[in-house]
């Protein structure tokens, strides 16, 4: 299981832990602009961290699955940032970039110059100018002190974690328990975003990158967000760049208008081939080491189990739980692992007070697919709950189903989901691999549709292929084009 969320449509949750972040990615040492003469190269400017920023860094790593290590990508990003720093107004400002092991499309920065970019964002970009636009945008937030301003605002805003739960007093449950996230990203203001776009596009152009990379990538991110429309964002890592960096068609137009001011510069570099070579084989989506979702099915190869959610449910894998929400939000489920003493029966655990309004008369001991189990019911306006606990070796797994109205369908959904819980076979464990980006060359006869159908593990493959490759609804591929597809 993989991360926690900032809120849900399932039950009222007030959540705000204020960490103020601002911007984008990994790799560290950046150098000051070198003099035009062949003088000795200055030492790279180093990021001056603080105990507070070190703590935030660790929290970010914990929330976003740690750092993603890829020497080729790290080298590419380091070279991009070196060029951006050299032409910026503050070549003495150090930056340290970290690639985060998350499939979300996001980037942010701490006021110290620590930049973060997810591998999901890197996978979505199509050339060096697009990635440089993100990095320069985040550098701009640091240079303009937006990150520091937002951090101050978050502190002043009574940074508290307060959770209103329909379910009781279990701090890990908290209304299907999507709370307790350690990360909240306040949005930048419209003025700050426009200012960062202006500074960022200028830095990119002066570094000889195509200044239109920003407007192209903002468009790709908007289209990527549309693909997610209707899905409940239950995991902070699923929050994308546009969540903390509000974008509108105005912003895309503004970025394009700013780029026009730099057409006289020799700023045209895309370097698509180098970029695609660097992203070839990058992990796409979830990392199976934390368990992963394939459609309605959740698999955890490391722990060796799987189960399947009901029809019309969307699953999200978070750090503390797997969360499922039925289309429309009238039903939801949570799956997690809890500590239960070996000497305590599962029935006693369900009745032990971690959840309020449990109907103890409904509690019963069961066996599910050979595993000792127990179930019970509970209520908490406006939700009705069905809860199961299964003991697997020394672990106890908990299924919590919530429905606005108790019905035959909700009962059946809960029962069928729990009954689908089973051990993975050795063959299934060995075959569980992450999805990856594969860069291929378009051959004669290939079309958007035929290439999209070669992708595995993704929904809406044709739209996904177009977004992943920066192709609009009418664009077609050409023979010898290099394109990205998603494969196992």
Automatic annotation (TrEMBL):
GO molecular function terms noted in the UniProt entry: metallopeptidase activity
EC numbers on record: 3.4.24.-
Domain (Peptidase M48) ranges: 73-257
Cofactor(s) the record lists: Zn(2+)
Lyase is among the record's keywords: no
Pfam families (UniProt xref): Peptidase_M48 (PF01435)
Signal peptide positions on this chain: 1-22
InterPro entries assigned: LysM (IPR018392), Mito/Outer_Membr_Metalloprot (IPR051156), Peptidase_M48 (IPR001915)
Superkingdom per UniProt: Bacteria
Top class in the EC scheme: hydrolase
Residue ranges, annotated region (Disordered): 32-54
Alphabetical keyword list: Hydrolase, Metal-binding, Metalloprotease, Protease, Signal, Zinc
Presence of the UniProt keyword Metal-binding in the record: yes
Protein name: M48 family metalloprotease
